[in-house]
Known about the structure:
This protein is an alpha/beta fold. It folds into two domains: 1-34 and 82-122 and 173-253, Rossmann fold (3-Layer(aba) Sandwich); 39-79 and 125-166, SIR2/SIRT2 'Small Domain'. It has helices at residues 3-16, 50-53, 56-61, 63-78, 84-94, 109-113, 139-148, 175-187, 206-212, 239-251, and strands at residues 20-24, 100-103, 118-120, 123-129, 136-138, 163-166, 190-194, 216-220, 233-235. The strands form two sheets. A six-stranded parallel sheet has the order 3-2-1-7-8-9, sandwiched between helices. The chain has a three-stranded antiparallel sheet with strand order 5-4-6. Strand 2, helix 6 and strand 3 form a beta-alpha-beta unit. It is elongated and about 60 Å long. The two termini are 24 Å apart.
Amino acid sequence: MERAQAIERLADLVRAARSVVALTGAGISVPSGIPDFRSPATGLWANVDPMEVAHIEVWRTDPARFWEFYGSRFQTLGDTRPNGAHAVLVELEERGLLDAVVTQNIDMLHRAAGTRDLIEVHGTIEHASCLSCGERHPLAQTRVRLDVDPEGIPRCDCGRPLKPDVVLFGEMLPAEAIDRAFELAARADLLLCIGSSLEVHPVAQLPGITLRAGGEIAIVTQGPTPYDHRAAVKLDGDVVTELEALLAALVVP
C-alpha cells in the first residue's frame, strides 16, 4: 500500500470507529529530543545494563548509584517540550475522534500538550515519593534536592531517599492504570499504536486484546513490530509527519 493510500485508509478507519484509543511508546517523544530505549548507538540502554541502574533493588541498596543514572534523566526530561505528534493527538481528542491515550512514557509530554484522558501505565516523573513516610515531592523540588545533596540523592524531609513515581524494573505496573488500558483496548474499534515496538509486556498485549475483540489496529512507528502483519495500516515514517498527514486527511471538507 502506497503511503498516500495508507494515510487515507487510516483516516477512514478513524472516521468509522466508535472508539479510537492511542497507545504510545518512546518513539513519539524522539522528535522532542528524548532518546528511545533500544537504538544501537543512541538508545537509553545502548551503553548500560538497566538491571544495574534502574532496578528497584538498586534504588533500595545503592540509591547513589541509582540517582547517578536517573538524575540525568530527570534533568533532561524536565526540560523537554511536546512535539507535533503530541499536538495531533490532542486535536483528535478535542474533535471527539480519540477517546484516550495510553502511554508507556514517563516524560509528561502528553500532559503538557493537553491530553485530557491519559493513562500512564509506567508512571510519571511529575513527582517522587518517600516510601518511608509517604510524602510526595514535585519534579522541580526533587531536582533541587538532587542538586544540593552531597551524595547526589534527593531526600525527603525525613531524610530518606526519594523514589521517582515511575515503574522500575522489578516492580509491578499500577493495577488501576493497566486495568483501564486493557478495558479501553477491549472496546476500541481502532487501537492506534504510535512509536512503540510493541514488545514490552504487559502493554504489548493490548493490540492482541483489540484484535480478539473484533477491532483493528494501525501502527505508526519506525522499525518492525510483532503486529505488522496483522495491522490494517502500517506507517513507518517520522511520527510527526505521519500524524500531521492523518490530521490533514481528516479535516479535508
